[in-house]
């Protein structure tokens, strides 16, 4: 096979940077591949010739002819090649004929040897004897000179291109390489000869028998060779063994060499890398490739860090166009065999050197820039697996893969879906532990830090609080796992992307900041300025979130060593400004800030008792003075102070100032809300003040009707006086618990508040006489009565007041609960009569809530074809209703509030109240928008709820209260028993874990629904065992009732719907069975 030389002009130079030849004189013209290759070979030959010098002198002359010594040299001369002596003991081959180049020499030698087989045999034997001399071997390995063409290729390459000599000469070359390679460690000359021998068969123009060459190469023990020579030979295999069938055997042999763990020899990783490079250049069919790929993936278990990315790269790059499932199988192999824990202790300064980062980069490149089905295969890989629900449980590799491909648009939403699934179905927080483990791969996380932040951001944005809470935990873990700029990015992401008008999102992020500030204040302190930047958003946060924000800032500034820190000073000044502002809302923020500072000072150990005493007295005095003008602000003060006492009563120091303040509040509470009635007035009680609800042993009465009536006479809002009733009681109850801790008492120290249970309730404006009271006043009175009774029942149901008071308390609780049920029934009846009831507003920025009876559903617009028919039917219906009503209802109350009047009144108040969102006088401010520029949930001035959801507006009863009431219930009132059973069902549904659901231990449950509100799971199960007998008794009585009805009467089924007692007992039967079902399915 002859190839023409490229015609390279003197002005044509090789541009190594651009990989091309540049002509300085002429314009660029493309050359074909053969010309390009020949030009490159010519350049290499010129460089090689320039290196063969003797005392700096190039061999430009032709030298003197040397007489041939053997048959080999005579045959070369016959083919036109002579040995020439250039002096200084330098001998080289020379092509004599000016018209003959190296290719011509090969043709001429082939013709000479073609005369007879004997001549070929004798020539090769002479050549074999000749090259035993290293000096003569060097001569045939060096380039030849030519009279007409300058420097030419070596004689050895010429012999390899002769068809009849290629196989024996190649075997001789390999044998020589093996001989010198084993001696390479002894001298540099052997290394040089081995390299020259290897260069002889690289890029051969023609290979006549690849199988023979294959046998020659793999008959030697390559693993004993020096790494550089061994790897160079492996790299050259695709250039020499070009036959496709032979390449399959080459791949198998290399695969065997790769797997030989014990006989690899020196530097095994470099040999394996060379094997991978060689395999990637071979044309391997699918049948051969699949087992090789599987074995390579299995080797990931023990492969070194430098080898792992190369194995993955080879497996991914060898995926054929028709191998649809190969990508997913490779991912499965990596997941099963790659032990990521081996790379956790390696701290790579450059992430590009990290094996895990490189592996994920290879996968990501394949997903993003190759065929689209790779992205689909990735999603399918993350979704499918083997577990009880047909979806896999994530391992570390799955998490890494999800983070790596999250930036791809085709994968983003699916990755989020799978992460949410793993979070919500995690057993014992296994997914949380997995995330913590993944963060130990810091080099990878650094390389994908932005993508991970975006993933966490999406999780926190989730509507499911389980997922949002987990996302906040990931922020915390990420903050603790890194330092420097990475921590700052985490804090910026939390403060700029999540603290907004979306309440749930803000709650979980501020909770995360609070945990970091409390557990790692020194780490968070450098980033306090970012937290303080949230100060401008408090007008759009809920009260609980504002309190959390202030607590974070107070906690951080408490650890500032420099007393002149400007940030801390600015915070304290802003709190004081809020407190003395003319805006009630600002006063609330000031109260929260002062209380958070007070809480921090109470827990501080660095201050003396005198300093604490003085600080407590000053703070409480200032708060009392600033909250006195506004009852709602004062109610917030009482609620938040109670939270401080209950959060950690053991750490509240004994203080005379606190005791004096508490005594003053007790006197104020009793004087303001309770009055004494003359004895004997009980005989004139009517309605809800009848004798069955009155404690005759107490002369004290809670003045509900009187306070509301006084407010109406003074033209005040009815809620302004009573809004502090429950908050003040909770504060007194909380302080009683603190006092118990001071005295180490066994009892709950609530004897001083026992009068609140004993006192009766004044409901004189709720008498049954028609038209004796305004409907709204009656509703407000009953509303506050129900709130108060629920608080009383919850407080004293589990209170330890001594054995002498136990029976008395149980009796009063039964009476108070019966009174509450009657009030609730009466309130519902009034709401049904008037149609709607606006609840008293208890918060400054809360929207007006209206309880509506019979909410009309919006009617669908009729189809276009039936529009005329629908209008006609509607008109006929209206006329018929008008005739039946006779123009109006006879029992309508002119004084009763209507829907239109109430709405107009509410809107008018909202329009003038600067504290109501959406009002015309609302002070404009900086809106902290929600996610992606949206303002979160739309704030309206009116919220409508149905009568069925009205019960949820009250504080839920505790399980201990329900259990006590059920235990002592005699069953005489089926209505009260049914109400208790419904309360029990609601509590059990919210607290008992179901068998088909997995627990999420990190979640903080909402008050009133969570297990902690009812005392924890152990307490709940203990109380459940106490109510089972009462539930069973109700079930038995219901069963006996219907059994008796069936035996003693006829037509019970026909009479069933009209029998109110039967309906009540049937409902008791249903609820009893439902309670047992919930308990035994948990």
TrEMBL record:
<dbReference type="GO" id="GO:0000793">
    <property type="term" value="C:condensed chromosome"/>
</dbReference>
<feature type="region of interest" description="Disordered">
    <location>
        <begin position="861"/>
        <end position="935"/>
    </location>
</feature>
<comment type="similarity">
    <text>Belongs to the Fanconi anemia protein FANCD2 family.</text>
</comment>
<dbReference type="GO" id="GO:0036297">
    <property type="term" value="P:interstrand cross-link repair"/>
</dbReference>
<keyword id="KW-1017">Isopeptide bond</keyword>
<dbReference type="GO" id="GO:0005634">
    <property type="term" value="C:nucleus"/>
</dbReference>
<dbReference type="Pfam" id="PF14631">
    <property type="entry name" value="FancD2"/>
</dbReference>
<dbReference type="GO" id="GO:0007129">
    <property type="term" value="P:homologous chromosome pairing at meiosis"/>
</dbReference>
<dbReference type="GO" id="GO:1990918">
    <property type="term" value="P:double-strand break repair involved in meiotic recombination"/>
</dbReference>
<dbReference type="GO" id="GO:0070182">
    <property type="term" value="F:DNA polymerase binding"/>
</dbReference>
<feature type="region of interest" description="Disordered">
    <location>
        <begin position="1"/>
        <end position="36"/>
    </location>
</feature>
<feature type="compositionally biased region" description="Basic and acidic residues">
    <location>
        <begin position="875"/>
        <end position="885"/>
    </location>
</feature>
<dbReference type="InterPro" id="IPR029448">
    <property type="entry name" value="FANCD2"/>
</dbReference>
<protein>
    <submittedName>
        <fullName>Uncharacterized protein</fullName>
    </submittedName>
</protein>
<keyword id="KW-0539">Nucleus</keyword>
<feature type="compositionally biased region" description="Basic residues">
    <location>
        <begin position="861"/>
        <end position="874"/>
    </location>
</feature>
<dbReference type="InterPro" id="IPR016024">
    <property type="entry name" value="ARM-type_fold"/>
</dbReference>
<dbReference type="GO" id="GO:0031573">
    <property type="term" value="P:mitotic intra-S DNA damage checkpoint signaling"/>
</dbReference>
<feature type="compositionally biased region" description="Acidic residues">
    <location>
        <begin position="22"/>
        <end position="33"/>
    </location>
</feature>
<feature type="compositionally biased region" description="Acidic residues">
    <location>
        <begin position="886"/>
        <end position="915"/>
    </location>
</feature>
<keyword id="KW-0832">Ubl conjugation</keyword>
């Amino acid at each position: 096979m002859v190839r023409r030389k490229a015609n390279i002009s003197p002005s044509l130079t090789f541009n190594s940077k651009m990989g091309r030849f540049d002509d300085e004189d002429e314009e660029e013209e493309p050359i074909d591949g053969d010309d390009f290759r020949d030009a490159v070979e010519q350049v290499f030959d010129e460089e090689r010739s320039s290196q063969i010098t003797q005392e700096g002198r190039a061999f430009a002359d032709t030298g003197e002819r040397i007489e041939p010594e053997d048959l080999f040299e005579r045959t070369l001369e016959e083919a036109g090649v002579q040995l020439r002596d250039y002096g200084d003991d330098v001998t080289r081959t020379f092509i004599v004929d000016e018209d003959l180049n190296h290719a011509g020499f090969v043709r001429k030698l082939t013709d000479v040897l073609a005369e007879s087989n004997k001549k070929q045999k004798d020539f090769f034997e002479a050549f074999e004897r000749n090259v035993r001399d290293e000096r003569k071997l060097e001569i045939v390995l060096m380039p030849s000179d030519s009279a007409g063409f300058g420097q030419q290729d070596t004689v050895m390459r010429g012999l390899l291109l002769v068809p009849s000599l290629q196989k024996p000469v190649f075997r001789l070359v390999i044998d020589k390489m093996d001989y010198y390679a084993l001696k390479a460690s002894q001298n540099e000359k052997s290394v040089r000869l081995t390299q020259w021998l290897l260069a002889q068969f690289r890029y051969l123009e023609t290979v006549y028998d690849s199988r023979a060459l294959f046998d020659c190469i793999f008959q030697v023990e390559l693993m004993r060779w020096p790494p550089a020579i061994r790897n160079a030979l492996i790299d050259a295999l695709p250039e020499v063994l070009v036959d496709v069938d032979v390449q399959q055997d080459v791949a198998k042999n290399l695969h065997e060499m790769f797997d030989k763990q014990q006989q690899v020899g020196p530097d095994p990783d470099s040999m394996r890398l060379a094997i991978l490079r060689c395999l990637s250049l071979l044309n391997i069919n699918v049948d051969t490739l699949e087992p090789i790929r599987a074995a390579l993936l299995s080797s990931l278990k023990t492969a070194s860090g430098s080898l792992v990315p190369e194995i993955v790269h080879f497996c991914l790059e060898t995926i054929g166009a028709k191998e649809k499932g190969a990508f997913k199988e490779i991912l499965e192999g990596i997941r099963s065999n790659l032990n990521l824990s081996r790379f956790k202790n390696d701290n790579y300064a450059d992430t590009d050197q990290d094996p895990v980062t490189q592996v994920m980069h290879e996968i990501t490149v394949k997903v993003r820039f190759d065929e689209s089905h790779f992205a689909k295969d990735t999603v399918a890989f993350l979704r499918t697996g083997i577990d009880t629900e047909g979806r896999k449980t994530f391992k570390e590799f799955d998490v890494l893969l999800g983070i790596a491909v999250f930036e791809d648009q085709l994968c983003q939403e699916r990755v989020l879906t799978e992460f949410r699934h793993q979070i919500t179905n995690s057993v014992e927080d296994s997914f949380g532990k997995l995330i913590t483990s993944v963060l130990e791969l810091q080099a990878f996380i650094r390389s994908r830090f932005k993508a991970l932040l975006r993933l966490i951001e999406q999780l926190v944005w989730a509507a499911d609080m389980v997922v949002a809470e987990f996302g906040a935990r990931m922020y915390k873990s990420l903050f603790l796992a890194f330092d420097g700029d990475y921590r700052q990015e985490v804090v910026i992401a939390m403060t700029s992307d999540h603290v907004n008008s979306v309440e749930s999102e803000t709650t979980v992020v501020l909770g995360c900041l609070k945990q970091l500030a409390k557990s790692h204040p020194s780490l968070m302190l450098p980033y306090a300025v970012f937290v303080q930047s949230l100060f401008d958003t408090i007008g759009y946060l809920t009260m609980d979130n504002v309190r959390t924000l202030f607590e974070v800032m107070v906690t951080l500034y408490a650890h500032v060593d420099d007393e002149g820190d400007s940030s801390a000073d600015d915070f304290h000044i802003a709190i004081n400004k809020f407190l003395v502002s003319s805006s009630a809302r600002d006063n609330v923020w000031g109260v929260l800030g002062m209380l958070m500072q007070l809480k921090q000072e109470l827990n501080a150990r660095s201050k003396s008792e005198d300093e604490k005493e003085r600080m407590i007295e000053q703070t409480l005095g200032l708060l009392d003075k600033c909250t006195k003008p506004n009852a709602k602000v004062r109610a917030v003060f009482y609620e938040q102070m109670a939270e401080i006492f209950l959060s950690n009563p053991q750490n509240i120091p004994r203080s005379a100032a606190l005791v004096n303040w508490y005594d003053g509040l007790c006197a104020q509470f009793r004087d303001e809300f309770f009055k004494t009635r003359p004895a004997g007035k009980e005989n004139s009680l009517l309605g809800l003040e009848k004798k069955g609800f009155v404690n005759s042993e107490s002369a004290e009465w809670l003045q509900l009707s009187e306070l509301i009536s006084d407010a109406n006479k003074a033209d005040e809002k009815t809620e302004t006086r009573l809004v502090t009733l429950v908050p003040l009681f909770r504060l007194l109850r909380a302080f009683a618990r603190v006092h118990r801790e001071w005295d180490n008492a066994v009892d709950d120290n609530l004897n001083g508040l026992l009068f609140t249970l004993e006192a009766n309730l004044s409901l004189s404006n709720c008498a049954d006489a028609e038209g004796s009271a305004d409907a709204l006043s009656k509703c407000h009175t009953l509303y506050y009565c129900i709130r108060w009774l629920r608080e009383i029942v919850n407080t004293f149901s589990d209170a330890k007041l001594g054995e002498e008071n136990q029976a008395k308390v149980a009796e009063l609780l039964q009476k108070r609960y019966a009174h509450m049920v009657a009030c609730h029934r009466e309130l519902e009846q009034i709401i049904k009569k008037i149609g709607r009831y606006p609840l008293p507003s208890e918060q400054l920025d809360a929207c007006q809530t209206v309880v509506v009876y019979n909410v009309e559903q919006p009617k669908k617009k009729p189809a276009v074809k039936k529009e005329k028919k629908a209008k006609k039917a509607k008109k006929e219906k209206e006329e018929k209703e008008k005739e039946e009503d006779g123009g109006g209802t006879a029992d309508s109350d002119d004084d009763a509030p209507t829907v239109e009047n109430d709405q107009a009144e509410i809107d008018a108040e909202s329009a003038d109240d600067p504290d109501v969102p959406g009002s015309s006088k609302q002070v404009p401010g900086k809106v902290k928008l929600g996610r992606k520029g949206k303002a979160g949930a739309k704030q309206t001035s009116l919220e409508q709820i149905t009568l069925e959801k009205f019960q949820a507006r009250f504080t839920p009863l505790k399980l201990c209260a329900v259990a006590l009431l059920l235990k002592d219930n005699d069953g005489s009132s089926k209505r009260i028993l049914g109400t208790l059973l419904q309360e029990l069902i609601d509590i059990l549904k919210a607290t008992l874990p179901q068998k088909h659901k997995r627990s999420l231990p990190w979640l903080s449950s909402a008050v009133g629904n969570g297990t902690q509100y009812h005392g924890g799971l152990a307490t709940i199960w203990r109380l459940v065992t106490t109510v089972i007998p009462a539930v069973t008794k109700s079930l038995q009585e219901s069963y006996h009732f219907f059994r008796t009805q069936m035996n003693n009467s006829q037509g019970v089924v026909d009479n069933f719907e009209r029998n109110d007692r039967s309906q009540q007992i049937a409902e008791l039967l249903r609820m009893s069975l439902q309670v047992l079902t919930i308990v035994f399915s948990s």
